[in-house]
């Protein structure tokens, strides 16, 4: 299968160029940069023994992150001040995370006393252990 980008423009015979005016305004970087979400993307997965959260945040240090757990709410936040960035003259800047907050509600099956976090290669990885009673029981079933 091949994916092809489809452009659904309708030509308005009464007002030619009408759509082009709005397209040029909203595709301008001034508007476009403000429409882009300024929080890092997150992947959440599950294995037999753990829940895994991966947060893509390049350009940060592990000291920039704060992880808090209150009740069943895991909160990841960054508050960063950058003196070096003020000296640079950017023509476009898309991965600047000077501050953000992401919160996740842990499931009942999560063991909040066993949470490990590491930050390498621009990705914050958080492993949350499952409670023993929540782990899936696996066994081979014999066919008769």
Task: Give me a quick take on this structure.
The strands form 2 sheets. This protein has a 4-stranded antiparallel β-sheet, with no helix packed on it. The model is unreliable at 29-36 (pLDDT under 50). It is mainly β.
Rg from Cα: 23 Å
Beta content comes to 35-45%
Individual helix count: 2
Question: What is the average per-residue confidence, as pLDDT, rounded to a whole number?
Answer: 77
Q: In terms of per-residue confidence, which ranges show pLDDT below 50 for 5 or more consecutive residues?
A: 29-36
What secondary-structure arrangement, pairings included, does this model have?
Elements: H1 18-26, H2 29-35, E1 42-46, E2 50-56, E3 65-70, E4 73-79, E5 99-105, E6 110-120, E7 123-130
Antiparallel strand pairs: 1-2, 2-7, 3-4, 4-5, 6-7
If you had to describe this structure to a student in words, what would you say it looks like?
The protein has helices spanning 18-26, 29-35, and strands at residues 42-46, 50-56, 65-70, 73-79, 99-105, 110-120, 123-130. The protein contains two helices and seven strands. The protein has a domain at 39-82 and 96-134: Immunoglobulin-like (Sandwich). 11% of the residues lie in helices and 35% in strands. Strand 3 and strand 4 (73-79) form a beta hairpin. The protein has 144 residues and is mainly beta.
